[in-house]
Amino acid sequence: MIPIRAAFAAAVAAVALAQPIAAVADKDAKRSIAILEFRGGSDAVPQIGTRAAKLLRSKSSLRIVDAEEARTAKGGRVDAAIAKCGGEARCVAGVGRVLGVDEVLLIGVSEFGDVILTLQRIDVKRRRVLSRVAEALAPGQDPDEETLAGYLRRVLPKEDFVRHGTIRIKANVTGAHVTIGGEQRGKTPMEPQRVIAPASYDISVDKAGYVGFRATVDVPPDAVVQVRPVLTRANDAWYKKWWVAAIAGTVVAGAVTVAIVATRDDPTDVDVNVPPFGGLATFR
Amino acid sequence: MEITFLLPESAELSPIGTNVTLAEVALVTDVPGESPQRFSVPISDGSNGLNLGRLPVADGVRLSVELRAPSQRLIGYGRSPSPVDVVADGVIQIEIRLRRPFAYVTGGAEIATYDAALEPGFPYRGAISVAPVPLAAVSTFAGDELVTVSANELRLVSTSSHTPMEFSPVPLAQAPNSVALSPDDQFAIIGHGGATGGISIVRLADVRGETAAANFIPMGNVTGVDASMGVPDEDPPLAFALIDGIAPDVECATAGTSSIVGVSVANPSEIVLTVAPGLGVSDFAVHPVSDAMALAAPCASSWNVKAVRHHADPTDIIDLQELGRATRIAIVNDRVWSVGVQPSSGTTGARLIVGAVGFDRTGVTVLELPEAEERALSRDFTGPGQFAELAMNADALFPLDLAVLPGEGHVAVLTRGFYHGNEVVGTILGIPTLIVPEMTITAFEYQLIDAGSGTPVQRVRTMCDLDWSHDAYLDDFACTTVPGQDIVPNPEFAPRHLSVLNGAR
Hints:
Chain A is α/β, with parallel strands linked by helices.
């Protein structure tokens, strides 16, 4: 059994590599893909289509239509049509067209001694297979989530696994320069900014004559994070002004508590952290 | 760097307590030679702590922390009591006391407290009981204490609990009319009016050590005080006194001239500077760490907000801003805030004007508030749906005090207004009859004003004195409120002095 599975997998891998991965995740709109099952008389790896759809919903930027949704939309005709197609790409693309999706990921399950699991990515418009992955599984073997995710990553473009969120910046002044994650994004007012998610972004909003705004926001996938920078007028430091006599310097030795408790190597700046507050220890 | 936030235990006083919702924490960093930077973090709960970005390694960094509500309203503020040297090879631990931006108003039987953190609809009025009744109060730069002065003593009040601290009161030689603190929170300067007036200086550390005594220095009729750091800065702080300041409601034709004198707290009997602008000055403020001074000269023929360098050239009085009859003044960083009045005309009533300008005359801001208004309600009608109400615009309006809230998002003012209503003649049963008598209202008010829009967001009338001629058909009137205005429960009081926690005046 094991040698057969290895040989088969190697052959299919070669096929997959030979297929050009043409589609790239659209910059702004979500690509839609139907996840459908085709079973050649095998009941192995049950719910594999549903599991794949769930995985893709959590890990990709695709809009997923699973078999249940397809049945809800088009009734039992979908299962019958897929069975009738017998895995033929042009026919499956027709089903995808009826479902209104861009692509169909057809997951086939059949048995030749081993259980043969195939994943075909079919372009609905061009009615052809874009990529294909096949794996031989021992009878009774069910791929775990990580393994299944590995199959999906092989059959789908890597860009599909980049998810996005949106940062909407609404400042109280116009003409302020906005930087997100170190990248200049333009001036306020500005359109919502699409960013890779989940991720944390440093945001800065600056305008001459105003106190710069700095913030760090966590952007979850598919979320819109609204940031409302309030820029207040910055007045040049008093010690630069004409009226100041030559007395610039520290105000006084005050009551601030300063204690060196640890060391750092960074010569230019230091982290600012605030311990939990609101507890008994911070009452005063 | 680790910043520990210290908060009042009372939920009504804490910036993360009752009736406020935390949405954002911002660290404002002022590094010498650079523009201030703000780093803000959305946060609703401090139980996990937070990261406030990174600070450049530099000496003399000033830090302040702002807590804001979802509406961006300031609900808490605190600052490092002195500049911090940020070093690369160590973690600096500092503590910042965060407080709600309370306004404290004296003049009544208690210190009236108005919580500027609260959105409309929440109970923002409170009181602090201190005996004897304080006449003036000012908060420390660190924000932890309120220094109050009554007719004969100085006391400390905790901003964490709004209760007097346990230290013994310090006796004062005369009744005070004003109080200010040196920027290092080391000295309280108390002003005393009248021909035998002067200033008293009290070292606050001695108050806490139970060894304090007020050092009285006769100067004559002191009407206002302030303090700055020494010149040069290693010298002891300077105490300033306004001598013969003119009242906000003075008739300019009879107004005299004023002067400001400065003394070192270390040797207060020796006057080290005198500013004599040759005008009547109603208020002044000094920059905490430079020799800049701002003056309100309401009777000046023009440019009644003025500036002077009290050490470099105290004779060179510089015009800063034209603001109708500016009577009160405050300095925030390098900006001068003032409040004046646009007088009534034939068709419009008097209104407040709030101005701000940099010492270099840039960044001019002028806010015109709505016309001041009070109303009188006839009590002669008792039937349902029957009433007669008279709305009166102000004939005259006088700003009594001004304070700028931390962050400069709001200003607080105290005012006294005079309102006059003409008689109304009508016909009853065909007979010409005086229906509504001529009447006057004298009203005192506290207002919290949005500095962006000039809109009052809190209004408390602390006193309304209504008088009318008793010769009309309607002969029983009482003050009533205008929309958005609250009134104090009895007894009413004429406010004397205003201070805002962590604010400027």
